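For the sake of transparency, this paper describes our internal protein records without simplification. The record that follows is passed on verbatim for readers who wish to inspect the format:
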Amino acid sequence: MTLLGQTLEELQQFCAKESFPKYTAQQLCQWIYSKKVDSFDAMTNISLKIRSRLKEIATVGRHAPIDSQSSVDGTKKYVFQASQVDAGAGQQYIEAVYIPADDRGTLCVSCQCGCRMGCRFCVTGQQGFHGNLTVADILNQILSIPETDKLTNIVFMGMGEPLDNYDAIRQTLEVLTATWGLAWSPWRSTVSTVGITPMLKRLLDETRCHVAVSLHNAFANERADIMPMQKAYPIEGTIALLKQYNWYGQRRISFEYTMFKGVNDDLNHAAELVKLTRGLRCRVNLIRYHASPYSSFQPSDQRTMETFRDYLERHGIIATIRASRGEDIMAACGLLAGQHSNTLDTPSIPS
């Protein structure tokens, strides 16, 4: 049994089954989450007898990254082995990206090996789907990087669609925010989604994290051409759902809008975006597309992005042009491919 990712209640049930003292579950939470230890030997206030038994029947569930790369801008990309993904699926590696900025340290974490969404512009989406990550796999990215104690924010924007692995995401958020867990404010986490509305409703009802919707085009027919999930979950339905909630508290809603040259970057698209989001308090993050050999899309130029941003702001939308980080190490938005330099069988991406 892997203990990382277990809730206090689950650990209490586990300890009761083993006839451990009732307080052992709380001790395990403190060692695994608060003190971030990776072995039972380090849990010095738990008896030797219990630690010996734990070694027989369980693992902490922590494992170090197998590879890392550093960007010229300070961004770091870490590659992890996914612990419970079928090796026969052909893809077992996931990536997490650490982004330092002044007094902030943000970690972009993955939730799946590959992705089912099939967005045409995303390198991860070109891989196909190879399996969901466990709660332990997701939390391990947070706890096992050297900068774990510098983290101020977590964004679920790495490999995979978070709401396609909803139960693992919800439990990860519980561990991050519970007093027996990492005790973070819920507003230190942001979950990204293409807009899987049934799971988005659950996320809104069951958690208090921020939400980022991958929009990329406000015209439904054009969005469907680059994002197949538009056909199953139209963006209009996502917007209608979001409007049912009060966004004037601490929770924030934002839209991610990657800009493609000659595709979605003119003022007609900006006007449609204003129309689509009217009545919803939100922020739009404009993202420069990072060209890759797996896509024919090209990035919009800086002047075009600034004109688009200025239009949105004149019409009452807070809009920012997100600074690109880690492009030189394939760590920027849409470039995560689950590859590492220490293996000869690194999975290839189909053309």
Remarks:
- Residues 342-351 have pLDDT under 50 and may be disordered.
- The chain has two domains: 8-57, 67-329.
